[in-house]
Amino acid sequence: MARSVALAEVIVGLHRLQFTMDMGFSNVILESDSRTVIKNIKAKGEDNSELRPITWDVHNMLKGFTSCHFEFVAREGNVATHAMASEGMKHSVDFF
Q1: 5-88 architecture in CATH?
Q2: What gap in Å lies between CA 41 and CA 22, rounded to an integer?
Q3: Domain range summary for the chain, segments of one domain joined by +
Q4: Over the stretch 5-55, which tens digit does the pLDDT of each residue have?
Q5: Rounded distance, CA 56 to CA 80, Å?
Q6: Phi, psi (5° rounding) for residue 28?
Q7: CB neighbours (10 Å) of residue 33?
Q8: Rounded CA separation 52/69 (Å)
Q9: pTM of the model
Q10: Alpha carbon separation from 12 to 45, 75, 84 (Å, rounded)
């Protein structure tokens, strides 16, 4: 189970990237209402937060895309992602 909403949201982002890769997309825009998640994914230097293991996986996965952009959107524009992250906090396993 994720220890924070930010951790849950970055895990959701990783799953979204895997899904888009499995679907064969090569150009992706990933949106999140978490400034922390977007900042950590965009960061080029060392990240010592709890998100680091997942952002490391995200960065490795990005090598499989032609282009990938990360954008912050206000919560009102990203209700589905917030609901998924909040629901994911209630479970101890990943699920779709």
Answers
A1: 2-Layer Sandwich (3.30)
A2: 21
A3: 5-88
A4: 888 888 988 999 999 999 999 999 988 888 888 998 888 777 788 888 899
A5: 24
A6: -135, 145
A7: 19
A8: 19
A9: 0.72
A10: 22, 15, 8
Q: Name residue, tokens 């990237």.
A: 17
* Cα–Cα nearest to 57, from 4, 21, 95, 5: 21
Phi first, then psi: give them for residue 16, nearest 5 degrees: -65, -40
CA distance 63 to 52: 17
Location of structure tokens 């282009």:
67
Distance of CA 25 to the CA centre of its chain: 17
| Bridge partners for 31 per DSSP | 71
Cα(72)–Cα(64) distance, integer angstroms: 22
